[in-house]
Amino acid sequence: MKTKYLEKLRDQLQNFQASKADIDEILSDYGQLYDDALAKGKTDEEIYQLLGEPRQVAYELIDTIKIKQHKNKRNKIIALMPFISVIIFMILGFGWDLWHPGWMVFLLIPITAIIMTTDVKNAIIALSPFITTLTYLLLGFKYDLWHPGWLIFFFIPMISIILNTRLKDMFVALSPFVATIAFMILGTYYDLWNPGWLVFLLIPMIGILHTRKLWKMFVWELSFVAAIAFYLYMGYVQNNWATGGLGFILPVATSIIFGDMNFVWDMPKGPMRKKVYILLSSIALSIAVFVLLGVLAQGWAYAWQIFLIIPVASIILFDKFRVTAIMPFIAVVLFFSLGYFLHIFQWSWLAFLLIPMAAIIENA
Amino acid sequence: MNTQFKKGIVEMCIMSIIKQNDMYGYEVIEKLATDIDVNENTVYPILRRLTSQGLFDTYMEQTNIGAPRKYYKITSLGKEKLEEYEIEWKSFLKGVFKLLGGIADEN
């Protein structure tokens, strides 16, 4: 009961942002009062009445405690940032007619809040949507690289993976993203959609490196290399890609023989496995929809947006769900789709103001 | 009675009893509660405030039951303040009694 009372009091004092020294002193004093009251034969209920409800006590003590200076300063900066942003926005707008892209200064609001309230590692992860959004906009507006500039969004799950995953698993976890980026660049700039898709085979090939038995790993990798070589030979030399595809029976057969068809690397157990499956499915689904929209509707220009499902799925599955983290993607889709389909790019950029708005509402 | 007004009186009473003897927190609560109707949970915040204002000093003293206890001791600044409060209080009471029917004169 005493411990519970002191814990409640600690929580309340922390809510008032009391310094650690003050909290320790007050708790020590209340500990003594509690012990003295117990020694006088008081019951826990009587002592609770005597000492007072922790929230009320903390309120009574407020003028005797020192507020954490650094936290106070941080809060001031966070609270001032909307005003600073408006001033900068106005100066840029009236001074140099830079209303656009001057509005980007509003992104300073969530960025400052994240930097001021989070530790370095989490700040990097939390900032990644904003940095990538800014980079994406820069690539788009300045160099008209909307496509394949959107690939930059893959850096969000990639940063999270790099900071949270053991080195051993990192390459496997990163491989789907690296493969997709390579595939899109090969396709877009060199029109190598085929055989560019072969880069996706890097995913199982890297996964196989985890195989414990060396000879098994060697045979397995060799089956992939042989299949790829056969496919390329049949395609480029014989101009018969379809027959070349038959070569992939070899690695598939090897996988079946080794009994690891389902799990090409050490999959995590339990709910984590389910999450990995959902993420892998979202990657597969995105690729399928992208190719279908591209081939059937010639929609390459907008179909790329489907890939934004991957970082969104990654955030929802592996991080704490926060609207602030998802909002950059929603904003990008709104911005691009409204601009592309309705030809209102001059208005659709306003969608990006949803990002700081979401951050303010969520962090308030 | 107005809470702030009552707190002011309790504050003066606490200064007065600590002037007589150095005391630890629970002792102050007990002593006050025997003579006046006081909300005990306001006592510690008052002790802490008076200490932060330099009117009380604290020191630790070993006890038989365990951890050392914090004792409160009035400072010379505290004594000066208490004298001021007592003069103000007595003058105030005199006026009040006069208004209520000359009770102060009778005493």
Task: Write a brief caption for the model.
The complex is a heterodimer of chains A (364) and B (107). Chain A has 364 residues and is mostly helical. Chain A has 22 helices and no strands.
Written description of the protein model:
The complex is a heterodimer of chains A (364) and B (107). Chain A is mainly α and 364 residues long. Among the domains of chain A are: 2-67, no CATH class; 122-210 and 265-363, no CATH class. Helices cover 77% and strands 0% of the residues of chain A. Chain A has 22 helices and no strands. Chain A has helices at residues 2-15, 20-39, 44-51, 54-61, 69-96, 99-102, 108-117, 120-143, 146-149, 155-164, 167-190, 193-196, 202-208, 214-237, 241-245, 249-258, 270-297, 300-303, 309-318, 323-342, 345-348, 354-363. Mean pLDDT of chain A is 80; it is low at 261-265. Chain B has 107 residues and is an alpha+beta fold. The longest helix of chain B is centred in the C-terminal third of the chain and has 26 residues, at 76-101. Chain B has a domain at 3-75: Winged helix-like DNA-binding domain superfamily/Winged helix DNA-binding domain (Arc Repressor Mutant, subunit A, Orthogonal Bundle), CATH 1.10.10.10. Chain B has 5 helices and 3 strands. Helices cover 64% and strands 13% of the residues of chain B. A 3-stranded antiparallel sheet of chain B has the order 1-3-2. Classes of the chains: A mainly alpha (364), B alpha+beta (107).
The number of helical runs of chain A is 22
Enumerate the spans of chain A where pLDDT stays under 50 for 5 or more consecutive residues.
Answer: 261-265
CATH class of the domain at 3-75 in chain B: Mainly Alpha
Note the run of SSEs of chain B as H and E.
Answer: HEHHEEHH
Q: For this entry, what is the oligomeric state of its chains? A: heterodimer
Overall morphology of chain A:
flat
Largest sheet descriptor of chain A: none
Mean pLDDT of chain A: 80
Molecular shape of chain B: elongated
Count of individual beta strands of chain A = 0
Supply Rg of chain B: 16 Å
* CATH H-level superfamily of the domain at 3-75 in chain B: Winged helix-like DNA-binding domain superfamily/Winged helix DNA-binding domain
Looking at the overall shape, the CATH architecture of the domain at 3-75 in chain B is Orthogonal Bundle
Compute the CA-based radius of gyration of chain A.
28 Å
